[in-house]
């Protein structure tokens, strides 16, 4: 079985936890590290939560602390109304058993890309600041990384933090635009597909029965997420945002992709908007426009259901 070497760049975050625990459990993913970023929570909390998830999954990996603020704009407030003050809903802080790696996230990404040329997949599920900083540190990684699977953006369904912008891109539009222009193989898993895959409380009830440790944790964390979506979107459930980006690494055939040049609106009311440009000089990326909903959802819950 061929395994993909993966770094998840993350701001955990409830849906980040869903993605990380899936990656730790799936036999086709070799999770070689986590890098933290601001977004759902501040970077200090994101680093702690990434370490805690590695502990919880019994899957020790290096965790490198990333950027604390965006590149070209003042920092925005963390999404505590979506994920809770500590990142995992109503749950109290989880104190990890080990320490973060001594390298910055950007340095760790560059080191791993150079150590595994043509093998490494980057999966950023938060703002793209760490990837932009890694490109600044070593532009050559764009030719060495196998692929970049981004959870972010929206082509046709509008935004989730404004009428235009998806949250991860909105948090650092300058970094996102730089990453999209870098010429590496980018697959963008945005709201066009993630809003198609919803999870219900009963999904997590069954998961907790099958896998009391990981499933029980996700059931408890997700309650806050459900409450947010009931208040904000009118349904008591949650979208499977970040986990779909991880799923796209191992099961790309579940997605329909369109190839476009994509740019990011950098300022104004539409800051963070992702839009198609007809410019042959612009690097093209693959944008997920459709997903096989039931197959993706079944893969997720079957994988976690076989855990502990």
CATH topology: Inosine-uridine Nucleoside N-ribohydrolase, Chain A
Mean pLDDT: 97
Secondary structure tally: strands: 11
Write out the strand line-up for the largest beta sheet, numbering strands in chain order: 3-2-1-4-5-6-11-9-10
**CA(first)-CA(last) distance:** 22 Å
Describe the overall structure.
By secondary structure, this protein is α/β, with parallel strands linked by helices. It has one domain: Inosine-uridine Nucleoside N-ribohydrolase, Chain A, CATH 3.90.245.10. Helix content is 40%, strand content 19%. The protein is built from 13 helices and 11 strands. Strands 3-2-1-4-5-6-11-9-10 form a 9-stranded mixed sheet, with helices on both faces. A two-stranded antiparallel ribbon has the order 7-8. α2 links the parallel β2 and β3. The two termini are 22 Å apart. The mean pLDDT is 97.
In short:
The protein has 308 residues and is of the alpha/beta class. It has helices at 14-25, 43-56, 80-83, 105-115, 129-137, 141-144, 167-171, 173-180, 191-194, 201-210, 214-233, 241-250, 293-305; strands at 4-10, 29-36, 63-64, 120-124, 147-151, 186-189, 198-199, 238-239, 255-264, 274-277, 284-291.
Question: Which descriptors would you attach to this protein?
Answer:
alpha/beta; Inosine-uridine Nucleoside N-ribohydrolase, Chain A; 9-stranded mixed beta sheet; 40% helix
